Amino acid sequence: MLTRLIPSSKEALPVVGLGTWQTFDVLTPSAKEPLKDVLKTMHQYGGTLIDSSPMYGRSEGVVGELTAGSDLENQFFYATKVWTQGREAGIQQMNESFRLMRRKTMDLMQIHNLTDWKTHIKTLKDWKAAGKIRYIGITHYTDSMHGELEQILSSVPIDFVQFNYSIVSRNAEKRLLPAAAEHGVATLINRPLGEGGLFAKVRGKNLPDWVKEYGIESWGQFFLKFLLSHAAVTCVIPGTSKPDHMADNAKAGIGPLPDKATREKMAALVASF
């Protein structure tokens, strides 16, 4: 799988990861079983990043349960978030995330949807200095907040910014992605498949022959390769609970990526449906 460097450290990060919103919020052993295979499949294809949050119900605990004690436990890049008001509440919540995910060190701790970010950023800086977390991030999921994300990453030393971006939702290309590149901030892309809505848009449509030169075999790979072909995108994090979908997503990170002209051709095709 292709990797991109995290600008603040020059650590290589595989470009396709895994989101856990809804998909890992499960309770029964039968529901957890395919998730083991999702994680194994991601690893087999070279992916590492698992993104979670206290907002995602049982997801953090399921990630911890499925990875702790396994051969792959230390092969993943663990990312979660703080999502509460107040310093002490934030510390308590983050410590609970460590417990649930069964981590002594968290690879990435993010401030979810910028909730009380000025308070939590101080704690995260202290925890990074102490080696408790490796990277600091901020997140949001709407176009309307891209300006605030840009302002923060332009003025506060952070390592990651996570936001929404897809082939039909390209607001991030205007200022946020260029700002991340300019200021040396890694990017995580949420909602890369439009929460599944993109598949409804292309239902019954055949892939054009010209995408074969990019190794694109499915519409999922088409959508993800479009995003990955933007140089400022570090990693996309589509969510899934199905191993075959994880494999399909991972393949988007393998092989050649479209050039600028082909990107626009791809976007125009989807817009025509």
Automatic annotation (TrEMBL):
What CDD domains does the record tag this protein with?
AKR_PA4992-like (cd19095)
Record domain NADP-dependent oxidoreductase: where: 16-260
Q: Domain of life here?
A: Bacteria
What name does this protein carry?
Answer: Aldo/keto reductase
